[in-house]
Write a structure and sequence with these properties.
Length: about 260
């Protein structure tokens, strides 16, 4: 619900955002705070979190930062406990932390498979599990998971474990939506493609040009595009949307 006096959608809301030190997560944190949200920014990269916190606070927003490896269950539990102790509630969870690398099937080592699954899938499972009792207690919640186009159509240049993990995120989004919907908690996901972040730095200029030509809107995506969608799914405006995975790719892939 928008605060009539301020026009801000997230006034009084506590939002946990993982992978917030850079890219899409950083933009979501900035935009959420600008709309009145009390942001708990989570990442393993301390310098990026410090810069984010300063930018939010210099703009008059509120930001708490937490160093946490979401692939470690005990760390996630302590992180959620710490945020709950500080704010007494958690209204919004954005599962954005991720790991992506390129390689063929033959080049994908056991270590890469484990790291990909641990961060991209287990991190989401651990965080949702930890936040569920907090949201249930408040009879309210918005959970948004960052999946990928690879979770729908499969990998091409990224290692094949990445699409497997993101496909699982799409499935678990539906499971969580079914189980938590009766408690006032919605769970949705987004499936981005061609969003220009540091994670996509392996695309050279020729690759970017050729990909943009395959997208109906004839451009690549920005972190602001993604943030706009995540903020909508995190708001009360989306209260009747549950269990969906929304494509955000300029029309490159439609289902």
């Amino acid at each position: 619900m928008i605060n009539i006096k301020t026009g801000k959608r997230f006034e009084g809301k506590v939002a946990v955002i993982t992978g917030a030190a850079q890219g899409m997560g950083r933009q979501v944190a900035l935009d959420m705070a600008a709309e009145g949200g009390m942001v708990a920014a989570v990442d393993i990269e301390e310098n990026g979190l410090s810069t984010l916190k300063k930018e939010i606070e210099d703009s008059g927003g509120e930001c708490t930062t937490l160093i946490c490896d979401v692939s470690v269950s005990s760390n996630v539990g302590r992180m959620i406990e710490g945020i709950t102790a500080l704010y007494r509630k958690i209204d919004i969870l954005v599962n954005n932390a991720g790991f992506l690398t390129t390689g063929t099937i033959e080049e994908t080592s056991d270590e890469l498979i484990d790291k990909t699954i641990d961060i991209n899938l287990k991190g989401v499972l651990y965080t949702i599990r930890a936040v569920t009792p907090v949201m249930k207690a408040g009879n309210y919640g918005r959970i948004v998971n960052v999946a990928s186009i690879t979770g729908k159509r499969g990998d091409n240049t990224t290692i094949f474990a990445y699409g497997a993990a993101k496909g699982a995120v799409i499935s678990l989004t539906r499971s969580v939506a079914r189980q938590l919907g009766p408690f006032g908690i919605t769970c949705n996901a987004i499936a981005p493609h061609a969003i220009m972040t540091k994670m996509m730095s392996y695309w050279d200029e020729e690759k970017k040009r050729s990909i943009s030509e395959t997208i109906p809107v004839r451009r690549l995506g920005t972190v602001k595009d993604v943030s706009n969608l995540i903020l909508f799914l995190s708001s009360d405006e989306s209260s009747f949307i549950n269990g969906e995975t929304v494509n955000i790719n300029g029309g490159y892939y439609m289902d």
